[in-house]
């Protein structure tokens, strides 16, 4: 049996890539296996969303409950996507150079810089404030919707755009990722959750807004950088999550 077709192994790889939860994977990991695991990213999103959803069930005041939910949301991902958001803000809004090619190279260099600049700090603060205020009035169902949708958005962005540089996660995975499997997995998660909602049509609209926001951010950054990177995918996922949270505020 080929390991690349072992669903449990693929799920373990996906969980290890997108969260701080480490599941032991025996033997070496082939590039094809890592690429195949992308199809299960929405399932990892459901696992990630379960942590803030559980916090939102606690019988404590809304604002500290939202802080706890957000802390768990950030903690289970290891702040991986927040780092991508901050780096992308720094790089995307860096002053342009003399030519578009020079601007692109400068922005890619900023993406790799571990230091965070003023645009990154401002973007991070605004993002966290946006999530916190939304979670203060959110039902537990909301993060269960937002997190899987964000991971599907990341897969679509990876499929839709070339890698911005020859190294890194986007280049390792390539555009030939199992988008069909990711879409099926996302549908198996999102459709039942939507039907469970009091107003399914509102959830459906929020899902559409989240997709548009995530893919819009990915397209903007891909234009700036000449393609996508792991940081760009993280930023797209964060944008999708925030959009879903805001769309379901009322």
Task: Explain the layout of strands and helices.
Elements: H1 7-18, H2 31-37, H3 41-55, H4 62-77, H5 80-92, H6 100-112, H7 118-135, H8 141-160, H9 169-173, H10 179-196, H11 200-225, H12 230-247
Helix pairs in contact: 1-2, 1-3, 3-4, 3-8, 3-10, 4-7, 5-6, 5-7, 5-12, 7-12, 8-10, 8-11, 8-12, 11-12
Q: Which keywords apply here?
A:
mainly alpha, 250 residues, 12 helices
Describe it for me?
The chain is an all-alpha fold and 250 residues long. It has one domain. Helices cover 72% and strands 0% of the residues. The protein contains twelve helices and no strands. It has helices at residues 7-18, 31-37, 41-55, 62-77, 80-92, 100-112, 118-135, 141-160, 169-173, 179-196, 200-225, 230-247. Helix 1 packs across helix 3 and helix 8 (141-160) packs antiparallel against helix 10. The longest helix has 26 residues, at 200-225. It is globular and about 55 Å long. The termini are far apart.
The share of residues in helices is: over 70%
Proportion of strand residues:
under 5%
Shape: globular
Total number of helices: 12
The chain-level mean pLDDT equals 93
Note the run of SSEs as H and E. HHHHHHHHHHHH
**Number of E-state strands:** 0
Supply the number of structural domains. Answer: 1
The helix/strand class is mainly alpha
| Main β sheet profile | none
Task: Give the distance, in angstroms, between the N- and C-terminal Cα atoms.
Answer: 50 Å
Low-confidence stretches: none
């Amino acid at each position: 049996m080929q390991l690349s077709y072992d669903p449990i192994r693929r799920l373990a790889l996906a969980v290890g890539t997108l969260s701080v939860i480490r599941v032991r994977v025996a033997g070496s990991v082939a590039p094809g296996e890592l690429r195949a695991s992308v199809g299960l990213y929405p399932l990892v999103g459901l696992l990630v969303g379960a942590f803030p959803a559980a916090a939102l069930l606690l019988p404590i005041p809304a604002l500290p409950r939202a802080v706890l939910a957000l802390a768990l949301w950030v903690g289970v991902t290891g702040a991986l996507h927040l780092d991508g958001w901050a780096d992308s803000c720094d790089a995307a809004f860096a002053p342009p150079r003399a030519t578009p090619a020079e601007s692109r190279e400068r922005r890619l260099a900023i993406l790799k810089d571990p230091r965070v600049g003023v645009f990154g700090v401002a973007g991070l603060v605004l993002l966290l404030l946006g999530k916190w205020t939304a979670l203060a009035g959110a039902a537990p169902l909301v993060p269960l919707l937002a997190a899987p949708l964000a991971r599907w958005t990341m897969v679509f962005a990876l499929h839709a755009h070339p890698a911005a540089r020859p190294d890194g996660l986007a280049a390792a995975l390539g555009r030939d990722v199992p988008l069909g499997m990711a879409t099926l997995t996302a549908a198996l998660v999102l459709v039942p959750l939507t039907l469970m909602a009091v107003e399914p049509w509102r959830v459906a609209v929020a899902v559409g807004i989240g997709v548009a926001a995530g893919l819009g951010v990915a397209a903007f950054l891909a234009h700036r950088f000449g393609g996508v990177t792991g940081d760009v995918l993280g930023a797209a996922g964060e944008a999708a999550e925030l959009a879903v949270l805001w769309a379901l505020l009322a």
